[in-house]
Amino acid sequence: MLMGDKNHINIECIECCGKNLYIGTNDCFIYHFMLDEKVSTSGKVTFAATKQLHKYLGFKKPVNELKAASALTRLLVLCDNTITLVNMMNLEPVPTGARIKGAVTFTLNENPVSGDPFCVEVCIISVKRRTIQMFMVFEDRVQIVKEVVTPEQPCAVAVDGYYLCLALTTQYIILNYNTGISQDLFPYCSEEKRPIVKRIGRQEFLLAGPGGLGMFATVDGISQRAPVHWSENVIGAALCFPYVVALDEEFITVHSMLDQQQKQTLPFKEGHILQDFEGKVIVATNKGVYILVPLPLEKQIQDLLASHRVEEALVLAKGARRNIPKEKFQVMYKRILQQAGFIQFAQLQFLEAKELFRSGQLDVRELISLYPFLLPTSSSFIRSHPPLHEYADLNQLTQGDQEKMIKCKRFLMSYLNEVRSTEVANGYKEDIDTALLKLYAEANHESLLDLLVSENFCLLTDSAAWLEKHKKYFALGLLYHYNGQDAAALQLWVQIVDGDIEDSTRSDLYEYVVDFLTFCSDRDLVWKYSEWVLQKNEEVGVQIFTKRPSEEQEKNINPDDIISCLNKYPKARIKYLEHLVLERKIEKEKYHTHLAALYLEAILQLKSGTTDNCVETVELLLKLRSLLQKSDLYRIHFILDKIRGTDLHMESAILYGKLEEHEKALHILVHELKDFGAAEEYCVWNSENRDLQYRRRLFHMLLSVYLRADTSDCALVMAAVDLLNNHAAEFDAALVLQLVPDSWSVQLLSPFLSGAVRQSIHTKRMTQVALGLAQAENLIYKYEKVKHKGTPILLSDKKVCQVCQNPFCEPAFVRYPNGGMVHTHCAASRHLNSSVTPHSSRSSSET
């Protein structure tokens, strides 16, 4: 369409603005084409070019550069070192003939500083040596703004605001033409290779560096991206974010700005122009123009995912953020993360998969649905469409490899356990917990029980069937309990304990059932299984009554009913009565008497038996004695009648003591048991919380028992002497001296006598001290009284009452401790009203 039969015509430059394509040739012609973009049903993009017109400029020189200024509907044409302004539509020069002369090359400032929407800023490399000029171009005129001298001859230039990126003869620099400050970038020999300077974004440029590197540089002279590796002989570069497209003599190469990798290579010979225009990348040879059409970013990402190039796909997706609306990008990016997660999952890269699933906010049911039978039968979940992966289920993904399948199930267990308490689980808690229960049960995992005893949303029907299938009967009982079906739970556990069904989860299941019944609030259920637990072990089984919470015991179950139930289980009955009497401290005569009688029966039964149960007998005796000593509620005569005729002398003595028949009690201890230590202890515990006289009476009574006997009994004599010497403070020395035989020596009773004298002297001295303190206190009171009486009080008719403010007419008055004086009747009325009127009370306190 350009050359017809003229082979000498070559393409020198191109410009594209919207649908308008302009081509400049070596024979000084400008051609205008309209591009028509079409998309086929398969998604392929094609362009049709329609020639509009052409224009000969009349210089007989090639057209070197074309730049469109769409805001002005002007095309800037460089030919024969002159920039001419022509109309974009008819290619006619502007009537005013406005032009810029002496330009070697030029570029437009895409980040203008003037702020005028009806002008463009143009930067030219002047034919003057080492000179850059800045112009403002309007619709029909041009205006020079700045002329800048450069250190070396410039070869190429790009502009951003006030910043010029220049390729000089030996190096690249950044120059601020407003301030004149320059920043060296890196050296480069323009004589050996063609320099490339291209603005790729706000305050950032792409440069052809040494060693076949495409270098990125900002206006601050730093690089924020790693360089791309392209050909040593690169001719041109274009930007199609996030890619840099490079052209050399044989190829077009595509490089990612995100990871700096070369992504594509297209064979292309004889190319000499490569430029980008508003998202279009156009490449040209001397004879033809070609448009490079990028695949949609989503298609590129999906292709990378299909090739399992996950990292590249994610990098590309992140980089695409700037070109896609925010909401659309978020939806797209989440889906990409989810797809990438399934790819990593299929490769057993579980840590990476987990992070991708989390970041992509994956509907966890997508993952659960890969595992056969894990989703509840009632779940209405349907997989995403289009699908996030290519697998029907886990069997297809692992190709039947059991080891891989186990690893996948372990991962799902871990993942579900982590997400079940997060926002990810909202709305899907039943599906998650049911799936987790099934995985735990199948793997015999220890966390199964933890799941069931904590808050969970496992569906009963699905979960129960699954637990029964895997013979997890104890866990099934926990599930029933969590869902309020305690009867079903207990029935299962009882069957396990009885051996009707097998489940070795807990070796202490009987104790667990007892504990469960202990805290069970269903009274009927407790009664139903009470016989069973007591038959198994009555001492452990009775805990269902003894360890119940106190509020439950008081409200739900009558102790009398329990005692009736325990009649067949003597040990359990004793345990329960001990609980009532000793732990709950219930003060009812019948429980105390019953417990004492049961102790007594058990002791007598053990004593009458042939087997040696000495330890058990002693334990029961100690319990009986403790009860008889500490309790005042049992029927003493009833127990005493039961003891008569037995060898339980100590118990008889305790009972006589409770009846205040101390002489009988002491007689038993001294003459029948001959336990002198017990006799002394009897006096001590019987006189607890009693006055000193009562205590002395008991000890004197014991001494009389010792001395009333045959004095030839040395044991009793020594017991009497020891009693006196060890408890001197408990006796009245004068009475003792009257009782003891005259034959006893002073030396024999010296400890007693010393103690008695010491106690007498101590008592005397303490009395003297108390008397002295009382006298001192009395003296203080007397002093205070004298002090108050000794101060003279002067009263005259000039003094006024502090209450009524009237003078005193008679010598009778009342004086307050602070010296204030009032009438007697004022003081009386004030005192009367002080409790009624707060004001009077306050006044009194202030007087």
TrEMBL record:
<feature type="repeat" description="CHCR">
    <location>
        <begin position="547"/>
        <end position="711"/>
    </location>
</feature>
<dbReference type="Pfam" id="PF00780">
    <property type="entry name" value="CNH"/>
</dbReference>
<feature type="domain" description="CNH">
    <location>
        <begin position="8"/>
        <end position="281"/>
    </location>
</feature>
<keyword id="KW-0963">Cytoplasm</keyword>
<keyword id="KW-0813">Transport</keyword>
<dbReference type="GO" id="GO:0016020">
    <property type="term" value="C:membrane"/>
</dbReference>
<dbReference type="GO" id="GO:0034058">
    <property type="term" value="P:endosomal vesicle fusion"/>
</dbReference>
<dbReference type="InterPro" id="IPR001180">
    <property type="entry name" value="CNH_dom"/>
</dbReference>
<dbReference type="InterPro" id="IPR019452">
    <property type="entry name" value="VPS39/TGF_beta_rcpt-assoc_1"/>
</dbReference>
<keyword id="KW-0653">Protein transport</keyword>
<protein>
    <recommendedName>
        <fullName>CNH domain-containing protein</fullName>
    </recommendedName>
</protein>
<dbReference type="GO" id="GO:0005737">
    <property type="term" value="C:cytoplasm"/>
</dbReference>
<dbReference type="GO" id="GO:0006914">
    <property type="term" value="P:autophagy"/>
</dbReference>
<dbReference type="GO" id="GO:0006886">
    <property type="term" value="P:intracellular protein transport"/>
</dbReference>
<dbReference type="Pfam" id="PF10367">
    <property type="entry name" value="zf-Vps39_C"/>
</dbReference>
<dbReference type="InterPro" id="IPR032914">
    <property type="entry name" value="Vam6/VPS39/TRAP1"/>
</dbReference>
<dbReference type="Pfam" id="PF10366">
    <property type="entry name" value="Vps39_1"/>
</dbReference>
<dbReference type="InterPro" id="IPR019453">
    <property type="entry name" value="VPS39/TGFA1_Znf"/>
</dbReference>
<dbReference type="InterPro" id="IPR000547">
    <property type="entry name" value="Clathrin_H-chain/VPS_repeat"/>
</dbReference>
